[in-house]
Specification:
Elements lengths: L4 E4 L20 H10 L3 E4 L5 H13 L6 E2 L4 H7 L10 E3 L8 H10 L3
Parallel strand pairs: 1-2, 1-4, 2-3
């Protein structure tokens, strides 16, 4: 199984949008995020939140059993692979509500069809 780098937005994607507050977790988000992490995919929390607001998002996820390898930064492997770090996230799959409605079971299908 190919291990993927997966970028995950927070507000509107993992949780319902209530920025700057933390919204309720969206249906399927906890299960899918935990499943991806346990299978060895690299998860990056990619959000506009920073500082204390980022800490609150990471904490809220951690309390629900969701872990990330990175927060608002590229993975060490990708930085090494491309010889530097840039502002744009380098990932195989980006899950973000700005691209449309997020339905977490479809995220699993995308991972499977991407070889993950």
């Amino acid at each position: 199984m190919k291990k993927l780098v997966i970028g995950l937005d927070f507000d509107g994607t993992i949780v319902k949008s209530r920025y700057p507050k933390i919204g309720r977790f969206k249906f399927g988000a906890k299960f899918v995020c935990r499943w991806l992490y346990r299978r060895g995919h690299t998860l990056i929390l990619w959000t506009c939140r920073e500082g204390i607001l980022l800490d609150e998002a990471v904490w809220a996820c951690w309390m629900k059993g969701i872990d990330f390898h990175y927060h608002n930064e590229n993975s060490d492997d990708r930085i090494k692979q491309y010889g530097g770090d840039c502002r744009k996230l380098s990932c195989d799959i980006l899950v973000d509500d700005t691209a449309g409605f997020v339905f977490w079971p479809l995220v699993l299908i995308k991972v499977f069809t991407s070889g993950g």
